[in-house]
Amino acid sequence: MGKCPGRRCLTLFLGLGLGVVWLSAAHAAEETPPNTLTEAEKAAGWRLLFDGQTLHGWRNYRKPDISPGWKVEDGALVRAAAGAGDILTVEQFEAFELSLEYNISPGGNSGLMYHVTEEASTPWRTGPEIQIQDTGSAAKDPQKAGWLYQLYRAEVDAARPAGQWNEIRILITPQKCATWLNGQLYYEYVKGSDDWNQRVAKSKFAREPAFGKATRGHICLQDHGNPVRFRNIKIRVIPTGP
Prior knowledge:
By secondary structure, this protein is mostly beta strands.
């Protein structure tokens, strides 16, 4: 799957094996407020992980609550002060689709992790990370926005400049995982496959015994020391049982 057809559109996945339905959103962006769900999304099982008003459902890594370095400003979840720390969803997830928008500061760096557990000192030691950063001339890391850190990269660059909103969408299932940035498919992979294991063995994660092993865990937003804003954080759980 490549870029979304038409001027603008919203990808709505209705389930594994059922294909993809493209819903035109030529005017939806103007009519649908941030941090809300359309009726079609609700019907497909999507729900919000951030309500745009409170920090309900989030806490710091290995802590029961969330630090004052994270705030809600103008409908965005904002890493606003030094020492904010990495934050997690209170809930844990196994197979799912996740979508969020981020707005990174010039030269800024952050990350989105999944299947994070709290057995290690930091989230990145267990949870694979989709890189979030300014990919302009001020970028500080060779890993580009949307790449799965040190494991999978894209041959295209669909990132918008720092200060603009970008959408990351990920699919995580035992059969297939995939990442899109601004509607562009970046890569597909199978977590725990031979290819995955070979890539992990060649990365810094080879020294982390718990990295990528969990099949269920928290969603994590990283504090990498730079201002970053998140909104429209939504998830659709995919059943894995009989």
